[in-house]
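Re: Re: token formats

Sure, here are both.
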Amino acid sequence: MRRDTIDHEGFERADIKALRETGTPPDMPFRLGKISHVVLKVADLERSVAFYTQVLGMRISDVYPETMMPGRMVFLRYNDDHHGVALVGGATCPASGDELHHFAFEVDSLDALFQAREHLDRHGVELSFEGRRRAGQQVALEFRDPDGHNLEICWGIDLIAPGAAARPPEGWVTAATLEEAMANAPEGQAMTLQDTSLLRTR
């Protein structure tokens, strides 16, 4: 099934409605703020460290030797947190995607997303998708790391205040390129590119 399909009839199925209506207890004693970090098993630690530092621009915070973590462990940061990604060596096969579908990194501007596309292209990273998906309406680039983990760099995800509802499917606008996403934006998503030289013509 294409990932830009919007199945309005499927939304009416009982199992989908039941999942959507699953509530959060009103007396929760805490509120999660964000995903703190992700730890990945990799086959070649040096190769993966090179990808996450040289291609994605992360910085190394700490490294564990074998005596502290079998396979060794590298902690990488991309903001002020000590680490957002950690890599552990010793994986014996490529990532299958059976447990972890993908994880995404957010950039702070549309220009940064376009610049990321140029940067990934210069490093020979093949995109599996660019444009705008459905729920959340973020504009994104999708690709794989050297071990086959699915990664995303995105901008413009919908914000939902506590107690508010998500944008309905009728308001979703899909796009198959960054340029198409700019030309056909959903309500409330300001698609202003400062550096128009980043636009591609097809």
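Second one below.
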Amino acid sequence: MLDETSYNIDKDNSLLILDDDLPFLKRLSAAMEKRGFKTFSASSMAEFGRIIKDVCPNYAIIDLRLTDGTGLDAVENIRNINPNSKIIVLTGYGAIATAVAAVKMGAIDYLSKPADANDILNALVFSDQRKPPPPVDPMSADRVKWEHIQRIFELCNRNVSETARRLKMHRRTLQRILAKRSPR
């Protein structure tokens, strides 16, 4: 087992992991326990609600999209209970709008899946010490379009019809665009 002092983990090493992907949740929980954390796992907002009543984690890893809600609500709940907790938001649906919203709500970092345990550990523990390098290449035109659509989609509370109206786009065309993965 790795020594928690080598990572500068706080004495309160409680870590809440909220993700609805059960295999990923189990693997990440085991990996973070090996790195010195005392983990609490939840696969839904309902489980999260039960855990947060008893444990106010010092660290949290929150999935953005859950089957029964959004991880942003979990970030807000944790922040209200423990304003000093370090929260990482993970998502397979990365967009600038949601990253900005997560950071505004109190997350210290926003990582795209698949992120490995070392990337997550670095974001949790070394967040104050390192800044990411500036991008080398500008975003592609497809990526800029995708980010704009995602921003409007989030502003419309994920309502496809309203988003399509605001973008002056046919609803089915928007649904096809949203069904595709984001461009690189």
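The domain at 4-125 is CATH 3.40.50.2300 (Rossmann fold). Strands lie at 14-18, 38-42, 59-63, 65-66, 69-70, 86-91, 109-112.
- S.
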